[in-house]
Structure formats: C-alpha cells, structure tokens
Design goal:
Blueprint (H helix, E strand, L loop, with lengths): L14 H4 L10 H35 L31 E6 L5 H11 L6 E6 L16 E3 L12 H7 L1 H8 L6 E6 L3 E2 L1 H8 L9 E3 L5 H6 L11 E4 H17 L6 H11 L5 E2 L8 E3 L2 H4 L9 E2 L14 H14 L7 E6 L4 E6 L3 E5 L5 H4 L3 E2 L1 E3 L13 E2 L9 E10 L4 E8 L10 H8 L2 E7 L14 E6 L5 E7 L10
Parallel strand pairs: 1-2, 1-4, 2-3, 6-8, 14-16, 19-21
Antiparallel strand pairs: 4-7, 5-10, 6-7, 9-15, 11-12, 12-13, 13-17, 17-18, 18-19, 20-21
Helix pairs in contact: 4-9, 5-8, 8-9
Bound molecules: 2-acetamido-2-deoxy-beta-D-glucopyranose (NAG) (5 copies).
Length: 500
C-alpha cells in the first residue's frame, strides 16, 4: 500500500483526496497515476449518476402509475397486456372527476352535480377559483372542492378562468388518487350519466393515451373553435398516461396558446402537441342548441347517453316541469335501465298505417302516416344553433318541424316507470300537455284519441355496447275500443327488417 504526504504533489484535481492521508507517509509516482485514474472514474460516475437521476425524475410520472406498463419491461407471451392485469374491468372507482366551478356561482350550479354525484362512490373534486364564503356550508351531496393551483401566472387574452379550468386535469392528476384510470372533466352545469360513462370508457384500454369526447352540435361552433376538439361542457375523458404527459407539458403549453378562447380548446391544443387526436363518442352532449332539445333527444344516436349540458339554455326536457324536475324525472327512470335511456326504437301499427317512435324514458311520437326508418332516425328540428340562433346547419341531418298541424307527430312524455323482479320494465307515456292545434283528418283524430302509451322491455345489457350496435325492434298494438297503445320492445328476429 502506498501513501502520500499532504502538499507533495501539485495536481489540484487530487487535492481534496490527499488531505485524507496521514501527513508523515510518502507516495510513489505510480500511486499518483492510479489515484488520478480512480478519481477520474469517480468523477465520471458521479456525472452519470446526476444525469441518470434527472432522467428518472423526468420519467417518474411513469413510475407513479402502479398499473401502467413499465416501458423498461418487455411483456412476455402473446398477450402484451397480460401482466398488467388488463382484464380487470373499468368501474366507477377508476374515474377521477374534475369539475370546473367557481366559488361565486356554485350555489346556482350545484344542483346539476348533485344529480349525478354519489358521495363515497364517485371520486374527484370541484375546482374553485377561491375559498367559498366562510359562512357557506359545503353540502355532502356535492363533490368535495379544492382550489385551483397557480392559475394566475399564465398569459391570457380573453378569459383567465379558461386558463384555470384547462388546468383542472393537471390539478386532478397531482392529487394522486390511487387506481385512477381516467380523468373526466366537466363543467359545473354538466350532468353525467355515470353508469354509461363507465360502459363507454370500459371499451378503451386506459394504458394508452386516449382523449375521448364529442364536438358541438352547431356547425358554427365547430368552425369557430374546432371540429376535432372535445367540447368541455359535454365532458371529456383523458386516460392516465395522457394525463401524465399533459402534467409534464401543460404549463409551458398554456403560454403558447394564451390567445385561445376556451379551456377545452387549450387542452385540445396541448393534447395535439402530444400527437393525440380525438376519439369521438356520440353520447357526450355539449347541447350547443337553443329552444327545444326534443328532436335531438327523441332520436338519440345509437350510443349510451353519457352527458347533457347547457340545460339552463334550452327548454325543460318535459313540458310543465322545471328543468331540474325534468332531470329528476329522467334520472329516476335512468337508474332502472341506464343502458337503454333515450335509446330509440320504432315500429309501425299497420292497421292504421301509423309510425311509432320511442325514445326510452323520454318520449313517444305517433306519426299518423308511414315514415321510413331513415326519416324516423333523423331528429326533428325543434331547435336553433347555439351562437346565432339560426336554423342550422348542425353536425347531423335534421327534418324540419312543420307548422302545419296535420304534419306534426302526436307527442307523449314519460309519466311512470315500473320494474318487476325478472328485469322487465314498463314505462308509460302521457300525451303532451302542450295543446296541439287540431288536425281534422280521420287518422289524426284517432291518434289524438290515444292518451297513454305503455312500453315494455327487458333491461338492456350494457355489454351490448361492446358489440356493433343494432337497433332493437318493437311491436305496437291497441284494443279496438281502447285509447291506450302498447309497445313491446324486443330483439329483432332473424331476417326481420323495419319496413313500412
Ligand atoms: C385475467 O385473465 C387471466 C387469464 O387470461 C386470469 O388468470 C386472471 O384471473 C384474470 N384476471 C382478472 C382480474 O379477471
Ligand atoms: C373497481 O374495481 C377494483 C379492482 O380493479 C375494485 O377494487 C373496486 O372495488 C371496484 N369498485 C367498484 C365500485 O366496484
Ligand atoms: C362517506 O364516508 C365517510 C367516512 O367513511 C362517512 O363519514 C360518511 O357518512 C359517508 N357519507 C355518505 C353519504 O355515505
Ligand atoms: C355570507 O356572507 C356574505 C358577506 O360576507 C353575505 O353577502 C352572504 O349573504 C352571506 N351568506 C349567507 C348564507 O349567510
Ligand atoms: C301545463 O302548464 C300550462 C301553463 O303553464 C297549464 O295551463 C296546464 O294546465 C298545465 N298542464 C298540466 C297537465 O299540468
């Protein structure tokens, strides 16, 4: 073993090490050379260590996702997702909701969240701009609240609160709730249908980067904002790995898009920088329409009803009820058969050449003439565009609602719901209390004489939505003297078609 005396060598690089040696021992040149090599090795190792740990810090979002695939582990066998337990089905506990609210307006909006929020079951927060007034009591029926972080430091042109709400996904992620698979954003006036939301998200692999939602109903809105953006009021879902990436880039990204209009547009821009595009699901409803949403909801697309929005800005769903009462009526039926809610099916009552269209748990229409399947599934235009209150265009086809009484359907709205133990449900619909102008044609008089429609169906299996959707068939019947019509919804028979 070779030792050295302090101060013998003039190599500055070795100075820190040399002080550790006893001063009375001598050292050879060979020792100095190997000490140099060791020190150089230590020096290089410490640099690599610093670099490596900053790499880890940079990537630690991956390691905070307990169920996400570790990119350094190569999956074994044919099924690459096997080892990540991908077959555990998504349920409500895997979703973290992030509601964009504000302290001042919460009291006017909270009833919307309270309609769908299930204390101790749904997880997530309402994100507020500031602490609510100290004298307000926060209801247990509301989602718990948190205050948005750091939102005042960003550049903006039109709305500072849009910046704040666009960061709800970041704030929600940072809470770090365990077993989060999806972050679902919504406004404080968004009504979610959570069972259907779970069904829809369950179709997608949460380990991949998904951005799921819907666009606006009004073309003018999509032109002004974007067609391929998820409109925030309808709600949208971001999978865990995408949220993790957003957290990493968002703050910088927000300053690049400071002149954008809404919070949803900012999220869309940042998601776009990650190369991810929108996955459309037609059950998310921004409801960018005015006046009566009837036509749209009576011909819902074949997809589970996931959300409704802008309910303060359209007529109540059910006439003679406030919007809140309407939503309670709808929700009561929804709970019995979530997957079937607002699903449309239609059939013909051939004796009288009538067309009958059912939107389950909402309304039934009788057209006292024969109308093709293509017409029946096209919404009647009972509404106008969002921004300019124009007569269209919309992102789907519509049929004009005639002002001629003899060309209008007779409308019935949900009145009651019953279920038996075998999963059979019976919904009844009563004639609309809104007085229709009389049409004197015989066929019309007969349809007007109907005052109640009884619809029976079996509960819809949510797994049906994993397959190619197929509209169900129905059979309409009526006793000769009766003014009640019965409609039985069932699966279509082999080779059955819906033909007038
Ligand atoms: C997932 O599937 C594998 C076999 O394919 C099975 O052994 C395992 O129990 C399943 N896990 C769950 C949570 O269903
Ligand atoms: C959701 O699934 C997880 C397993 O992935 C389970 O632990 C949890 O209890 C489930 N939650 C509900 C509400 O079923
Ligand atoms: C939710 O859970 C907490 C704690 O377990 C309990 O105190 C509270 O009563 C629960 N609330 C509801 C509405 O079940
Ligand atoms: C709470 O206090 C504010 C003023 O601090 C007042 O304007 C408001 O009416 C109070 N609200 C209630 C529910 O007492
Ligand atoms: C519905 O409301 C209108 C006016 O708002 C009223 O005239 C009518 O009686 C109501 N009908 C029912 C069935 O409540």
């Amino acid at each position: 073993m070779c030792e050295t005396t302090r101060g013998q060598s003039g190599h500055d690089l070795l100075m820190p090490f040399r002080v550790m040696f006893p001063k009375d021992k001598k050292c050879t040149d060979r020792f100095t050379a190997s000490l140099k090599a060791i020190s150089l090795f230590l020096f290089l190792s410490s640099i690599s260590f610093v670099l490596y740990s900053s790499f880890l810090r940079h990537h630690d979002l991956w390691f905070r996702c307990p169920e996400c695939p570790d990119p350094t582990i190569r999956p074994r066998g044919d099924n690459p997702t096997h080892q990540y337990n991908s077959n555990s089905t998504t349920n409500i506990s895997h979703i973290v909701f992030g509601i964009g609210g504000s302290a001042r307006t919460w009291k006017d909006r909270k009833h919307y969240s309270q309609l769908w929020w299930k204390p101790n079951i749904t997880r997530g927060f309402v994100w507020l701009d500031e602490e609510p007034e100290p004298n307000t009591t926060w209801s247990d029926a509301s989602p718990p609240y948190r205050i948005s972080s750091d939102w005042k430091k960003f550049k903006f042109t039109s709305s500072q609160s849009a910046v704040r709400i666009s960061r709800v996904v970041v704030d929600s992620f940072r809470v770090g709730l365990p077993n989060a698979r999806w972050f679902v954003m919504g406004d404080d006036d968004t009504v979610f249908f959570t069972e259907n939301l779970v069904t829809v998200l369950g179709k997608y692999d949460y380990r991949q980067m998904y951005y799921i939602g819907g666009s606006s109903e009004s073309v003018e809105q999509n032109v002004m904002h974007a067609y391929d953006m998820a409109f925030g009021g309808g709600g949208f879902a971001i999978s865990y790995p995408l949220a993790a990436e957003l957290v990493r880039i968002m703050d910088e990204c927000l300053n690049r898009y400071f002149n954008f209009y809404g919070s949803d547009q900012r999220v869309w821009a940042c998601v776009g920088e990650l190369g991810v595009s929108l996955t459309r699901e037609s059950g998310f409803h921004q409801i960018d329409i005015r006046e009566d949403p009837f036509g749209l909801l009576a011909a819902h697309p074949m997809a589970p009803l996931v959300s409704l929005h802008h309910l303060d800005d359209v007529q109540p769903l059910f006439p003679n009820q406030s919007q809140l009462e309407s939503l309670r009526t709808l929700t009561t039926a929804y709970k019995v058969d979530p997957a079937r809610t607002m699903q449309q099916c239609f059939c013909y009552y051939h004796n009288y050449k009538w067309s009958i269209s059912v939107s389950w748990a909402y309304a039934v229409q009788i057209y006292p003439w024969l109308l093709s399947a293509k017409d029946l599934e096209t919404p009647l235009q009972t509404f106008r565009t969002w921004r300019s209150w124009s007569n269209g265009p919309f992102t789907f086809n519509t049929r004009p609602m005639s002002s001629e009484p003899c060309e209008q359907p007779v409308i019935f709205y949900l009145d009651s719901i019953k279920e038996d133990k075998k999963g059979k449900t019976v919904t009844t619909y009563k004639k609309s209390p809104v007085k229709q102008e009389k049409c004197n044609q015989l066929n019309y008089a007969r349809a007007f004489a109907i005052d109640k429609i009884v619809v029976s169906s079996l509960k819809m299996d949510p797994h049906m939505w994993e397959k190619v959707p197929r509209r169900q068939c129905c059979e309409a019947s009526k006793g000769f003297w009766s003014n009640t019509m019965t409609v039985k919804i069932r699966n279509c028979k082999h080779r059955e078609t819906i033909t007038m």
